[in-house]
Structures are given as structure tokens and as C-alpha cells.
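Technical note accompanying the year-one report. For the benefit of new consortium partners, we illustrate the data format agreed upon in the data management plan: each record pairs a sequence with a C-alpha cell string. No post-processing was applied to the example shown here.
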Amino acid sequence: MRIGIAGDHGGFILKEQLTKALGELSHQVVDFGATSLDPKDDYPDFVVPLARAISRQEVERGIAVCGSGVGASVVANKIPGVRAALIHESFSAHQGVEDDNLNLACLGGRVVAFSLAWELVQTFIKARFSGAARHKRRLAKIAKLEEG
């Protein structure tokens, strides 16, 4: 799977760990930064390019990591076609994909340790959208909102 990843200073260490682990599973990982730990960087500078790549289908799924995961989720959802959510437990990691066709998981680098984050990421990338009529209907309503 082609997976995009991004993180600011609050998520940098976890982003690096996840990037390595994903590569070891033979996923193609596209790193949108940060490329170094800079306490003055801002998560939109990395999450927006990732979200745009998801919107253009240049990557299949994305993982964004900031300090709490909240800011990354907020900014990612401003990009049409992106369905981002804060994921800190297993149920949402798969249910978000199955029911809502979630394409961007947001994690908190200061909230979850690598072992839990890795479990959540694996659950997220293994999950598949159900395609159920009620879920498609709800996603169509969201798409209309994005069109204005």
C-alpha cells in the first residue's frame, strides 16, 4: 500500500518510528515531513500536503502525527475528499474505515506510545470500506457539503 505520513515536532519521533515499521512491512511510504525535529515548526505545513495527496489519490491512506492528533485532524478535514479522525483506540481504527471510508488516521505523539500507535496503524491499513448502502448514502451527503 502507498501510505503518506506527516508529523510536526510533537509527533516527529513517533512519525519516524512508524515510517520505519511501515517500510519493514514493504509498504511504500511517502514522508511529507518534518524531516528534522524543529520545535518551531507547525503541523499544517506537513499535514496539508499529505491531505492534498490523499485527495488527489496519490497515496491510498495517510497517517498524521502532531502532539495530540487534534490539530492534524482539524486541518486535514479542511481538504475536500479527506476523511480524517483522531485515532487512539482500536475500534475507531477499523470502524472509521469500514463505515466512514476514513483515509487519514491522526495520532498524538505525546498521547500514544509506539506500541499502541503501531497496533492502531496496522488495524487502520488492514481495514476496508464496507460499501454498505447506508454508508455510501452518508458519504454522498458529506461530499455535497464539500462542494458548497
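Partners are asked to follow this layout when depositing records. The longest strand covers residues 2-7.
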